[in-house]
Design goal:
Mean pLDDT: 94
Radius of gyration: 17 Å
Distance between the termini: 30 Å
Pfam family, one: His_Phos_1
GO molecular function: phosphatase activity
InterPro entries: His_Pase_superF_clade-1, His_PPase_superfam, PGM_Phosphatase
Number of strands: 6
Order of helices and strands: EHEHEHHHEHEE
Protein name: Histidine phosphatase family protein
Strand order of the largest sheet: 3-2-4-1-5-6
Strand content: 15-25%
Low-confidence stretches: none
Number of helices: 6
Length: 187
């Protein structure tokens, strides 16, 4: 059985991230056109590059390849009517709803997708990759990466908010009969 290598890359920083807002479909803050293909030589062999459908993931994917494929399973969590709002605004307008969402992974008071639903979607996508040998690089969102880590580590969704994912950070996962988290040094 040939192994699957999955590199998850968090999209570049956005204005919403810096302002603690639930994002709309917004661009990254870096000059992604100037930086196009700047990370293409990062790996010995070119990986299959996929990304979420949002502008911020598609723009970040251009750092790695000119022709990334859009994978809808990598879309950001659906935050319903909270999209575009700051956490502080929600805390003021809907404090009980925000608290419920933070402590109950099945809660979706915003009318969108719950953390548990997101984890299920990402787990199904990871399962589909188990028959895809070779290297896949997926440019996606911090919430999707958190969900992937919970799946691989077999942790409950209740631990979701204990993981921080920085812009442009990468996470290595490997599948060879079972998923593993791989920490690498870049010395």
């Amino acid at each position: 059985m040939q192994a699957t290598r999955l590199t998850l890359v968090s999209h570049a920083s956005t204005r919403a991230q810096k302002r603690a807002r639930f994002a709309l479909d917004e661009p990254v803050e870096m000059d992604w056109q100037q930086a196009a293909l700047s990370q293409a030589q990062r790996f010995k062999r070119a990986p299959l590059v996929v990304c979420g459908p949002e502008a911020r993931t598609r723009q970040t994917a251009t750092l790695f390849a000119a022709d990334a494929s859009v994978e809808t399973a990598l879309r950001d969590c659906d935050f319903g009517h909270w999209q575009g709002l700051a956490i502080d605004e929600i805390q003021q307008a809907e404090p009980q709803a925000l608290q419920a969402w933070l402590i109950d992974s099945t809660s979706a008071p915003h009318g969108g997708e719950s953390v548990a639903q997101l984890c299920e979607r990402v787990g199904q996508w990871l399962h589909s990759l188990e028959q895809t040998p070779g290297h896949v690089l997926a440019v996606t969102h911090p919430f999707v990466i958190r969900a992937a880590l919970l799946h691989v580590m077999q942790c409950p969704p209740a631990l979701f908010n204990l993981i921080d994912v920085e812009p442009l950070s990468s996470t290595e996962l490997r599948f060879n009969g079972r998923w593993r988290l791989r920490l690498e040094t870049h010395a």
